[in-house]
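Proteins fold reproducibly. Take a sample protein:
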Amino acid sequence: MLPERVVAGIVPHAGWQFSGAVAARVFESIRQKEKPETFIIFGAVHRWAGINAVYARGAWATPLGNVEIDEKLAQQILEATPQWTANEPKAHSGEHSIEVQLPFIKYLFPQAQAIPISVNPDARAVLLGERIGEILKNHNRPTVVIGSTDLTHYGAVYAFTPVGYGPRAHEWVCENDFRLLRLVEQMAVSEILPEAKQHQNACGAGALAATVAAAQVLGAERGYLIEHTTSYDVLPEGEFQMGVGYAGMLF
């Protein structure tokens, strides 16, 4: 089931062999409904904590060609959110959560531009999403907001094995993911960050919260889960010992 009009989406950002099919399905679903000329991509923060970094000028390279930055809209966002954002391209160096989305955009929307924004998992995320939603309400260029996050990271490598290993642990990962996804479906913006902090079920909780906040301002009333899976479901190896959850959603 898809919304009649798409204003935002959630995609995972792991290696394409694990999560690429979910991300591709989200972008293709957008293509079936909309013709966005710009994507605002909220990314997870794995490295440069403390700054919500806008990549405001130039382009990002992909194997399919460059994705140009929507410099005019990026500047408008910076001017409207000086207390929550900064123009800091270096913050995106070595960060993959936005980078892996751009080839999908280049392939399905060859002329579309993008605005990468890394979003920390704190109170600024919701405020930033709301402000950008307000900007887009009065914006005459078709734009879709994308949030990039993976879900529960389970296993010894992540120092997170609350129920051990085996089938019950895999089931627990899915339950932990859906605890968060239900809140997202319900647009419970204020509950997303506390939930992710308490149950460790989103590495990009700031990006997720900002996306839901923007979608709500843009008129979305609920989220639509397109697909959920885990890295273990995609590539099972023996008894379950580790896995990461992935979800694709539309608003």
